[in-house]
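Hi, here's the filled form for the chain we discussed.

Project: internal
Contact: R.S.
Residues: 183
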Amino acid sequence: MKILDIFAVYGWKAELLARAVAPGGQVYAQNSDAAFARVKDRLEARLKTPAAANIVPLVRVFEDPAPPDTHDFDRVTFFYAYHDITNLGVDRARMHKAFYEALKPGGELVVGDYSAKPGAGTSVAQTLHRSDETLIAPEIEAAGFKLIDRGDFLRVPGDPRDVHSHGGAAPVDIFLLKFRKPG
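And the returned structure, exactly as it came back:
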């Protein structure tokens, strides 16, 4: 498999994915310029380990996350940082279209983030570091994707969704959405 991991930061998610697709697969670990500047040393240290032998680091904008000569990904992943793109002023529609174009027909996009209250929109993205899945799913589907599954294994029904996701006081509700590019 060939996977594009969006907002890879330190590369821990990319490493897990790389282990899963080894020995023949590859993971492209995308970061923006600003994110890469913050994590450069830690990411480069991880990339020197044997487990990261099949990780390719990318420093690219979210709206154009894959090099033009790199396409036909089996999967694009975006975990635990979708809320950040709102704060960064990313053109989400353009980003979703870029994900769509990067995937091969039948390829999948998997998005997971800390749950906001339904209907919160983008209002709590910066203050609570949470995303409203009722906003995200339709936006992604507008790019041509079809929602095919939801993962409930990280759900925490008791999370009131009104505190910062990184507060540490209680477990945080996390949603996972899987989309497919038709074809």
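Let me know if anything looks off before we file it.
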